[in-house]
Amino acid sequence: MTSGKCVLAPLLLLVVLVYAANQPARITCYFSNWAIYRKGVGSYGVADVPGDLCTHVIYSFIGVSNVTWEVLVLDPDLDVDKGNFLAFNDLRTKYPRLKTSVAVGGWGEGGKKYSALVSVKARRDSFIKSVVEFMHKYGFDGFDLDWEYPGASDRGGRFSDKDNFFYFVEEIRRAFDKEKKGWELTIAVPMAKFRLDEGYHVPEICRNMDAVHVMAYDLRGNWAGFADVHSPLYRRPHDQWAYEKLNVICTRLQAPGSNWTQKFDDIGKVPYMYQGTQWVGYENVESVKYKIDFIKESRYAGAMVWAIDMDDFQGLCGDRNPLMNVIHEGLKGYNVPEKDFYTTPTPEWARPPSTTDNVQIIQSTRPSTYKPTELSTQKPEITSSTEETDRSTPSINNGETDKIDCENNDKFVPSKNCNSYYECVHGRAVKFTCPNKLIWNTKNNVCDWPQNADREEFQGKSILMPSLSPTMEKGTIVKWFKKEGDKIEAGDAVADIQTDKAVVTLELEDESILAKIIVGEGIQDIKVGSLIALTVDVDEDWKSVEMPDNVSVTPPVTASSITSPPSSSTSPPSSPTSPPSSPASSSSSPPSPPSMPAQGPPGQTNIGMPALSPTMTSGTIVKWLKKEGEKIEPGDAVAEIQTDKAVMTFEIEDEGIFAKILVPEGSQAEVGELIAITVEKEMDWKNVVVPTITKPTATPEVAPVGVPTAPPVGVPTAPPVGVPTPSVATPSAPSIPGQVYGLAVRRLLEEYGLKSEEIKGTGRPNRLLKSDVLSYIQTKNIKKIAPKTAPPPKDQKKPDIPLKKHVPSGVPSTYQDIPVSNIRSIIAKRLGESKRTIPHSYATIDIKIDKINEIRKELKADGINISINDFITKATAHALVECPFINTLYKNDQIIQMPKVDISIAVAIESGLITPIVFDATAKSILDISKNIKELAEKAKTGRLKPEEFQGGTFSISNLGMFGIKQFRAIINLPQTAILAVGSGREELNVTLQKVTNMSTSLSYDRRAIDEDQAADFLAVLKAMLEDPSFLIAGRLRALRYAQD
C-alpha cells in the first residue's frame, strides 16, 4: 500500500512445512529486538507485535559463545535485565493460540563461529545442553536455526560443514524429543541452489524439522549493476543468466519527495518508484496479494515475513499493519492441501552416517499432526531381484516394525538379517536394507564392507589400500615390513606402497597383530579401498582369523612368477561389490604374461627409468651426477632427468656403488627401461652382468584372472623387479645421509631445516618415521624456515632449434625434421585426449575493463605493478566461490566438487606449455597473487618448478591478450571441467558514443559436468566483479552485499 510519501517494504518469504496436510496455514513473523532502538515513530517493541495476525512469532537473535560453546545472549541488558524475553513469551496470555520461538544466528553473527561449533562433538553437546536449559528457563515454544550459511567459504564456513551441520540437527532433534515438551525445531534456509548444495543434506534435514523457512528475498543487489526490485514473483524478460535465479535492491535511498513516479511491474508483480536518479523497490497491498495467491495455488503451508517491524505499525499511511492484515486475511480459512514434495534422493555414499549418543530415543509429544517425511507415499514392492542399488532402501513391514520398541532403544536397531536394520524416527521404526551386499555395522551404525562389520560372521579388522595422494586410484605393495603374527605398535611402518606419484610408507596408529596378508608384494593395480590385510587385537588369536567371502590371498610376485605363469590360477582380491570369478574364466588357459628385463645376480640392482610424474611415459638423461665406481649413500641424487613437465632430480634410497651407465647423457629412455646398474659395497663394481633385454615388453590388453601382470610400457605402477624405488626431489634439495626415510619425512626435514641425525627413529631398523619428526617438532617448538631456490643445472642443454634458412627463388624448398620434445609430445597427447573425450561447450562475454585500468594507473603511481591477469585471477577465484559448480573435476564418471580454489595459469616456455598453480587463490590478496604468478612464471621458464607446483589445480586460465589476440577458445585441462580464455582489450564506442575498453573472455566447459546456465552464471558474476573491481580490493562480495548500519 502506498499513500503520498509512504512506502511499505517488509520482506515476504515462502515457507514449506513438514507437518501433515489439512492444517490451518502457518503465518510466521520474525521480530527483530534491535528495532526498539530506532528513534521516534520507528521504535518497535514487544508491545507492538500483532499477535492476532501471526500464528508463530520468532525472537531474533541469540548467538553462541566461542569460549564456552553455550547459548550467548547478544543484548543481555534488553533481553534479560529489562525482561524482553519474558515479555515476548507473555504475548501468549493475550493471544492464546500464538506460538513463540527464539532464533539463533543471523547475518551479523557470521559463519566461522558456527562452523567451529558443529565441527566438534563436545562443542555440539555443550551448546545443545545449554539450549535445553535456555528453553526451560524462558519458556519458548520453539527454536529456529538461522546459521547463514553452512559450507559458505565467504562466510567463514568449510567443506565439512555439510556433514557436521546434519549431525548437529539430528542431535538437537533427539534432545528436544527426549524432553517431551513438544518444542518445535525450525530452520531458515537460502533459496540459492549452490548454497543448499554446499551446506545442507536437504531430505535428511527436512525430516528433522517442523518447518523450513525459505529466505526468498535479496534476489537482486548492487552486484547487478542496476536498480531493481529485490523480490519479483515471476521471471521478467530482462532477467538473464544468474539473475534468472539470483536477483536485489541497491542504492542508498533518500527520503521520497513529492515528485515520485509510481509504477507496477505487471510481469514480476511488484511495485517501484523513481524520481530522477533515485529509485526504490518495495511491497504494497497489491503485490502481497499476488504472493498470497501464489502460496495457495502452489499448495505451500503458509507464509513467513522478515520482519514485522517493517510494516506500517503506526498507521501513518492509513490502517495499522496493512501488509500483515493482507497476509492474515488472504490465508484465513486456507487449510494446507495434500501435496507430494519430490526431492532427489541422496546417494548412500553422499549421506553421512547418523550420529548416536547415550540418550534414549523417546516418543515425541509433539502434536499428532506431525508426520515424518521419509516414508514413501506408496508401499514398496518386496521382490527377490538381485539387482543392486546405490543406497539403503526403506520398506514398511506389516509385522516386524511393530515389534521394535523405539521408545527404549537408540536411533538405530539391528535386524536379525545382517544386511538390514531399523531406524527409529520420532518413535516409529522404519526398516532399511543395505545396498550392494553390504551389511549393517552395529558399532558405527552404517552399511559397511563385510570385513569391517562387527557381526559374529566376520572376524578381524581390515587394512584397506589407502589413498595416499589426491589422484591415487590404484596402488602396488612394494614391500611388507611386518610378517603374519608380528605385533604392530602405534605408528609402526607396515608397508611401502607405490602410488601414482611415488613410494609412500603406510603406518598404522593402532596397536594390533598382523593376522593375514591378503595382497602379496608386487601385485599391481590394487584399487583404493580394496582389502590388503587383516589385523586382530593384541589379546586375540591371530591364527584363527576368518577370511571374508569372495576374497582370497594373492601371493607375492617373484622372479619366477614374472617369467612363467603359475600352475594354477589364483583370484585377485576383490571388493564386496565385485562378483566372484566364474568357473569358466578361472579355468581357461591364460596367455603368456609379458616379461621384464632379467634380474641381475645377487647384490646387483638394475635401475629403470623412473616415473617422475603421473603422465610421464619417457624421459631424457640431462646429466649424471654420479660416475661409475662412486659410492652411493641413501638419498643421494644420481641423475637429472627431463620429464614431460620439467627437469627433476632422481634419487636412490639404497646404499651401494654406482657400477654401470647404460643410457648416456642426452639420450631418451622409456619409463621402466634400464638406465644404470648398482652393486653392493663389497662387490667388484667392474664385474657386472648387463642384461640383454633392457626394455619392458608390451602388456596384453586383458590380463587373465589370477595372473600377476607386468607394468605396461610407459605407464608403470610399480618398479621392475630389482629396480630400487625412486624418490623425487628438486635440484636444490641436499642429500641427507643417516637414517632411512621416505618422501614425507624428507619434506618435513627440509621445511623445518632439520637433520635426520638429530632425531631417533622408532620404525624398522634405522628407519625414521613421519610421526618421529612431528613429535620432535612439537617437543622443540620448531618453526618452518623460508624455502630456498637454486639455479637450474649448468649443464642443461637447450634443444637446438634450426634457424629459418633463405630459399632462393626458382629452387625447390628444402625441409628438415625437427625432433618433438618429450614435453611437447605429452602436451599433444593430453590435449588430443581432452578433445576426444570431453564434449566441449563454449560461452563468450565482453567485459569492460576501464575501471581496472584506472586502478592500475593509481597503483603504478605508488610503485605497485599489477597486471590485468592478476585482477582476472583474483576475480575468477571469487567467482568460483560464488559458482562452486564450476570448481569441479570429472573423474571416473563422477563430478567432484573441490573445497578450495587452485587456479592453473598457462605459461609458455621454449619446450611447450606448462600450468603452474596459484593455490587457495581466494585466500590471497591481489598483491600476493601477482607476486606468486611472477615467481611461478620465472621458475617455469628456467626449469625450476617443483612437481607439487604444477600438478593438480581445479580451474585454468589462458591469457593471450598480451600477444594481441582478440578472442580464442582454449582446450580443457584434464581432469578439470573448465578453462577461461582471455583476449586483449580493444577500444570501442558504446551506445552513447563514449569510448570504452572491452575484453572478450571465453569459457570452455565440460558439458558432462556443467550446464549452459551454470556457465552463464559464472561469466555474469565474473563480469560484475571485473567491471567494479573495488570488490576485489575491499574484500568479499558478500560483505558488501549485506553491509550493516
UniProtKB/TrEMBL annotation:
Keywords: Chitin-binding, Disulfide bond, Glycosidase, Hydrolase, Lipoyl, Pyruvate, Signal, Transferase, Transit peptide
Biased composition (Low complexity): 552-572
GO molecular function, one term: chitin binding
Polar residues compositional bias, start-end: 366-399
UniProt region (Disordered), positions on chain: 366-402, 547-615, 785-808
Residues of the signal peptide: 1-20
Peripheral subunit-binding (PSBD) domain ranges (all copies): 740-777
Domain Lipoyl-binding: 460-536, 604-679
Entry's family note: Belongs to the 2-oxoacid dehydrogenase family. Belongs to the glycosyl hydrolase 18 family. Chitinase class II subfamily.
Protein name according to UniProt: Dihydrolipoyllysine-residue acetyltransferase component of pyruvate dehydrogenase complex
Organism of origin: Apis cerana cerana (Oriental honeybee)
